[in-house]
Design goal:
By secondary structure, the chain is of the alpha/beta class. It has one domain: TIM Barrel. Helix content is 40%, strand content 14%. An 8-stranded parallel barrel has the order 1-2-3-4-5-7-10-11, surrounded by 6 helices. Strands 6-8-9 form a 3-stranded mixed beta sheet. Strands 12-13 form a two-stranded antiparallel sheet. A hairpin with a 6-residue loop joins β12 and β13.
Length: 462
């Protein structure tokens, strides 16, 4: 296989949010299935049983990707669909589904980009072992990853181990608003530590596998922190905020440990990596993967524990349905910050998009000029970062389809394609048509920015 020779324009989804078939085809339950059944934890309609029914409609969805002119598609594997209890017995029907999906993408000329973990831990591992707090989880994750490398690695050239470990910890262990719904910071830092160890082991397994013909990374998410004022104190606070957010999981996968500032601030809350863990983690990414949605302000505040900064919201910006401020210039600054800190690695934006209160006409069509404006402004910000030297190689819009927005149910619509959750009818929105035209016209006008990894590192038949 050869590497794609153009910038990759794509769209992204995750398994729990679109697949459905939650209780069929041999799939085991996940912590999100359990969380959605917990009274009072989620919106009344939050249920992954059907969602977009992608498992049964994937061919229709691949055809829609072709209509959008997508170069690539990022999706995640449901760990409990492949290993119903997280280990041991392998569900052949689950493996076959992903095999057929990858074949359909390759036949359509769309590069498959696979995420191994997008938050849906098998329930059995949470119940029997305590989930990510258990030091044995990283090896079990690497074992699962190896199954996927062996089955799909002859065609998949882009791999992401974990999606947004920051969200797994912040939502799942600090705030308790995501599965598994724990509110304990010490347990959260331990879970985050084992997520890092899992990444390191899974990357080592990939690099040792017979199908090691591509590139692998971890999907970071981060806001960009602007200083609340021009004071030196707030400028320093904003940098501490960046280390506390992007650096928390970015530094280990590049330098082999957490930022020194975090070590000093949090002390024993941050577990120590063994020498072997550090060795596996250092330079354990072939490219940078970043998900961006919003930016914030940081103000120095010595009374705040840990990193001594207080987060503040922009008050003068339009906001999305998720109440996130729209700050495209923060996107540019984040890309530049990541590029400077992590050695100018090739970079892919693996999620960026906006939830809006879409209104469909009688035919199901959505005219969404605000989404078009959002994408146009963020594309321009990304291009500005490239002009500043960032080696941006691809851009995946979140999301391909309206889907289940986790605990918030179906109330937040991010899709380029509308899904009617009663009939499951798909309708490409105005933004999807705009994006298809953008790709057809070559994206950036001169088409001269954005290298790609060479064929020894990444690819996929085109």
């Amino acid at each position: 296989m050869t590497a794609p020779n153009t910038f990759l324009w794509g769209a992204a989804t995750s398994a729990f949010q679109i697949e459905g078939a939650a209780h069929t085809g041999g799939k085991g339950p996940s912590i999100w299935d359990d969380f959605c059944r917990s009274p009072g934890r989620t919106a009344p309609d939050a249920d992954g049983a059907i969602t977009c029914d992608h498992v049964n409609r994937y061919r229709e969805d691949v055809a829609l990707m072709q209509e959008l002119n997508l170069d690539a598609y990022r999706f995640s594997i449901s760990w409990p669909r492949v290993l119903p209890t997280g280990r041991g017995y392998v569900n052949s029907e689950g493996l076959d589904f992903y095999d057929k999906l990858v074949d359909a993408l390759c036949d359509a000329g769309i590069v498959p980009c696979v995420t191994l973990y997008h938050w849906d831990l098998p329930s059995a591992l949470q119940i029997e072992l305590g989930g990510w707090e258990n030091e044995s989880l990283p090896q079990l994750f690497a074992d699962y990853a190896t199954i996927m490398y062996d089955r799909l690695g002859d065609r998949v050239r882009y791999w992401i181990t974990l999606n947004e470990p920051w969200c797994s910890v912040d939502g799942g262990y600090f705030a308790g608003v995501h599965a598994p719904g724990i509110r304990d910071r010490a347990r959260g830092y331990l879970a985050g530590h084992n997520l890092m160890r899992a990444h390191g082991m899974a990357v080592a397994a990939y690099r040792a596998s017979r199908n090691n013909q591509g590139a692998i990374s971890l999907a970071l998410n981060s806001s960009y922190y602007f200083p609340a004022t021009d004071s030196r104190e707030d400028e320093a606070a904003a940098e501490r905020g960046m280390l506390d957010f992007a650096g928390w999981f970015g530094d280990p996968i590049y330098f082999g440990d957490y930022p020194p500032e975090m070590r000093e601030a949090y002390g024993d809350l941050l577990p120590a990596f063994s020498d072997e863990d550090a060795r596996l983690l250092q330079k354990s990414i072939d490219f940078l993967s970043i998900n961006y949605y919003t930016s914030e302000l940081a103000r120095h505040d010595a009374s705040v524990g840990g990193m001594r900064y207080r987060r503040e919201q922009f008050t003068d910006r339009p906001r999305t349905s998720t109440n996130w401020a729209i700050v495209p210039e923060g996107f540019r600054e984040l890309l530049v910050w990541l590029d400077r800190r992590y050695g100018g690695l090739p970079m892919y934006v693996t999620e960026n998009g906006i939830a809006l209160p879409d209104h469909a006409d009688d035919a199901g069509y959505v005219d969404d000029p605000d989404r078009v404006a959002y994408l146009r402004d963020h594309f321009a910000a990304a291009r500005s970062a490239m002009d500043a030297g960032v080696n941006l190689c691809g851009y995946f819009v979140w999301s391909l389809l309206d889907n289940l927005e986790w605990a918030e149910g179906f109330s937040k619509r991010f899709g380029l394609i509308r899904c009617d959750f009663e009939t499951l009818t798909r309708t490409i929105k105005a933004s999807g048509r705009w994006y298809a035209d953008w790709i057809a016209r070559g994206g950036w006008a001169d088409n001269g920015h954005g290298a790609v990894l060479d064929s020894s590192a990444a690819g996929g038949e085109r």
